[in-house]
Amino acid sequence: MRYVSTRGKVPAVSFKDAVMMGLADDGGLLVPESVPAFTADELTKLSALDYPSLAYGIISRFATDIEPAKLKDIIEKSYAAFDTEEVIPVVRKGGLYIAEIFHGPTFAFKDIALQFLGNLFEHILEERGEKLNIVGATSGDTGSAAIYGVRGRKNIRIFILHPKGRVSPVQEMQMTSVTDENVFNLALDGTFDDCQDIVKEIFGDLKFKHDFSLGAVNSINWARVLAQIVYYFWCSFRAAENGRKPIFIVPTGNFGNIFAGYYAKLMGLPVEKFILATNENNILSRFINDGDYTAKEVVATYSPSMDIQIASNFERYLYFFYDKDASKVEELMKTLKTEKGIKFPAADIAKVQQEFGTYSAANEETEAVIASFYKSTGYIIDPHTACGVAAGLKLKTESPVICLSTAHPAKFPDVVMKAAGKAPEKPAGIIRLEGLPRKVADIPKDTETVKEFIRRNV
């Protein structure tokens, strides 16, 4: 399998090169040259596998330049770090299936991809005798999951930018309590979009990128999306009801989580529809409802991982939506950069709406849903999951509904306590971080300052 850029201006590369490149050198995102599809018989066989075996059955279609035995070892090592043998339990609550994608080391769904990516990086670097400096931005969960994926690893340093004061206290604690020599946390005076823009600008400086051997862990890295594709198959197999296709409700701000599901459908997974759930920062909802992809000011909410206006993986979706027309994608991305928005024609949005619905839950509704869902089921959800559950409870359908639960409620104890009147039980992995020393550098919203920080610390 080879990988090409959504903007079509770089030669196709191997899987390992795609992992190490992160963002393509033409500014686009790397995607597989072709879509490997499963037959109905193959899906039946996959449905009988445990999680690591299922992951191998899917990922091996994409990572064709890694020896099978080594790839199996990387996958098994990645999911051995989870606190349940299932990796992702799927439970039935309040008429919905809740997929608990938060049983990894940092109690967020990002661990699914970033444990895998950390092991991939280590294997490729050791094989090539190279070093890597990872630069990433986080709205809360990616940062800690990435740090836990690569902390203490040989030949890797990681620089994570987060918006100062705009992540939850537990998210901040998980990141900044890691004091390993190869880990650097930068608290940026700005929003997540500012952090993300700086990371993209740094990767856009090709000389700097190559001179300092930069790599990406944000969902711009295809391996992130690839690992997430797996759990759509896993959840669908566990929520099968008389052959009816499921509806997936996906809390997402950066479009990576839901794009993985969209890609799983391209591969042959039967899906009735995707419901994109978000908060007041609803640029993706406005796109689906009205064709309006215009950035507005970021609003701080109870669900900070979705406090985003420009969604990185949206470009990958546009590439497939427009039948792999790289010139069309490049034109749209130029419009977005110069005009801070894109207006899509009604005919295109009608096509989008055949596969996607959407729902935006504001803080007040998020809080009310946490409270009512706990009262009716005894089950506590975090505020991101609550945005999805809010959408699910309004659906009138005979199809099984699967809501992806993206974080453990203990990562947002203040909101949960306020809403449910009960503090979520803290996992031991969070308790042991309390009171630990912190390592973080405050930094202004300036690309050159961030680049200088990297220069000093590599």
From TrEMBL:
GO molecular function (one): threonine synthase activity
Cofactor(s) in the UniProt record: pyridoxal 5'-phosphate
PANTHER family: THREONINE SYNTHASE FAMILY MEMBER (PTHR42690), THREONINE SYNTHASE-LIKE 2 (PTHR42690:SF1)
SUPFAM superfamilies for the chain: Tryptophan synthase beta subunit-like PLP-dependent enzymes
Name of the top EC class for this enzyme: lyase
Pfam families in the record: THR4_C, Thr_synth_N
Domain of life of the native organism: Bacteria
InterPro entries attached to this UniProt entry: Thr_synth_N, Thr_synth_N_sf, Thr_synthase-like, Threonine_Synthase, TrpB-like_PALP_sf
Family note: Belongs to the threonine synthase family.
Record bears the keyword S-adenosyl-L-methionine: no
Keyword Lyase: yes
Residue ranges of domain Threonine synthase N-terminal in the record: 2-79
Upper taxonomic lineage: Bacteria, Pseudomonadati, Deferribacterota, Deferribacteres, Deferribacterales
Alphabetical keyword list: Lyase, Pyridoxal phosphate
Listed name of the protein: Threonine synthase
Modification sites for N6-(pyridoxal phosphate)lysine: K110
Cited CDD domains: Thr-synth_2
EC number: 4.2.3.1
GO biological process: threonine biosynthetic process
